[in-house]
């Protein structure tokens, strides 16, 4: 079957076609998965007793890869099985692997099968001849990918059996959060070591790739904070009262209020309080985290959103007061509730960031057919932004139809797998034209092209540093690796 590979795709698959472990590095939209399908077909055709497994790191990617990539090209000649977390077939994984030529599943399903001793569920890495790892830059630290590859490397060092060929796919190896060039390069080298592979990128057909995947225009808007923030100041004064309620040695260790660092501090403080059975510390830390969340929401969205979150939290606590700590914390909020509510409703102090975001959305959605993604750092942030869009007359006037996409789970702001699929379907078909999402939409999803992507409130120091040395990193990588 004619895959219609572009020249740069043909270039990056050569190492894999020779049977070498490799990582295909192409930008989003460059056709990494199609290249992997081509390698898979070649492997099945040329390898004795071939058996391929494709690993993904998110459940919805199982069906996407199966239906849109592997099935159309390979189903006529090969038995393909797609297994995800919501499939009962995972309970017979070992049996299914034996009956299949190609298995597509989440990495956790393979990990579970590797450690399971029941015959119908158990598999070995040596049962496969090709292991394809999607979004392989996650093969680090305690990730499931890294656990699987740790077993692979251990078996290789012990020379145990015939191990599968490795094919990794990534749009970006990342920097690992490092701000220095040498550390960023070290991070990428570690990814290669974890995957026992070399990075392969196009060297001869870069202009073709750039034409197929044009580089988007990037614009960074730095918006000043509110000149006056009486709502935020009032929250901080209440937090200071909780600090005074705790031992002074504890409160002095906390960093600046309204930051991610402060959140990390109070999370650790709560854990310590629980471990040491110090309920005063544990409860104060829990409540301080709620106030800090309110400060973060106040900084990025509306004061009323921040107030509503706090109000809901304390409404749920009113009937569960167990001791003097609870009485103090609940009383502090109740005494200040009306003042906070009045401040939150004062339009004079609304967020200038939202005003800038509104102008951006109006520019793109007025008088033209637009499609966009608005990224927020937290699940709660996506819901606040969704409420803001749906209650904004100016945005509704230009027919913005917004939906939320967040990660799976059981919490109030989580989405089920079916809800995720339905939201993506509605966005793909045009029922929705603005997706408000956490990072779940940043990797691998088959989402239609957008003319606007806004990373709202996500311009971190790391991003600024990356802008400065990214070009150095790329040149360093090209000179440091064997590129085909």
TrEMBL record:
Helicase ATP-binding domain boundaries: 13-191
Any Gene Ontology CC annotation: cytoplasm
InterPro entries: Helicase/UvrB_N, Helicase_ATP-bd, Helicase_C-like, P-loop_NTPase, RIG-I-like_C, RLR_Helicase
GO molecular function, one term: single-stranded RNA binding
Domain Helicase C-terminal residue range list: 356-484
SUPFAM superfamilies: P-loop containing nucleoside triphosphate hydrolases
GO biological process: antiviral innate immune response; cytoplasmic pattern recognition receptor signaling pathway; negative regulation of RIG-I signaling pathway
Cited PANTHER family: ATP-DEPENDENT RNA HELICASE DHX58, HELICASE WITH DEATH DOMAIN-RELATED
Protein name according to UniProt: DEXH (Asp-Glu-X-His) box polypeptide 58
Lineage, uppermost ranks: Eukaryota, Metazoa, Chordata, Craniata, Vertebrata
